[in-house]
Amino acid sequence: MKKSDVKLGQILAATSEEEMKHPFQGKVEKIYENSALLSITSYDPKDETAVSDLNNKMVVNFKRLKKVKSPAQGRVASINDVKVSKIGDKEKSSKKSK
User: So which domain of life are we looking at (predicted)?
Assistant: First the structure.
């Protein structure tokens, strides 16, 4: 892929033999001279540890980038894995069961 084909915010497919064993997808956050910084958005579950170690970001050479036709079917990276529940709801349900 050429630098002129890469746009900020674009979702691209990428590979990295060094860090991740399987292809992944990422959103372009910054464009450099020969590479782009991707925020990893979708990846193979086997690469979960690598993605975590990379803080969901990776610099990838333009040669290893491809346009995406459809979203990947792998694990989707999320920076909002927080689940919220009301404490009062749990207390009420435990009192009802007694």
Answer: Bacteria
DSSP E strands in the chain: the ranges are 11-14, 24-31, 35-43, 57-61, 65-67, 75-76
Which residue ranges make up each domain of the chain? Answer: 3-96
Mean pLDDT score, 65-73: 76
CB 9 within 8 A of CB 27: yes
State in words which class domain 3-96 has. Answer: mainly beta
**Residue 50 host element (H or E):** helix 48-53
pLDDT digits (tens, 9 = 90+) for 73-86: 545 555 444 455 56
pTM above 0.90, yes or no: no
**Among 25, 39, 28, CA closest to 74:** 25
Give the C-alpha separation, 50 to 55, whole Å.
9
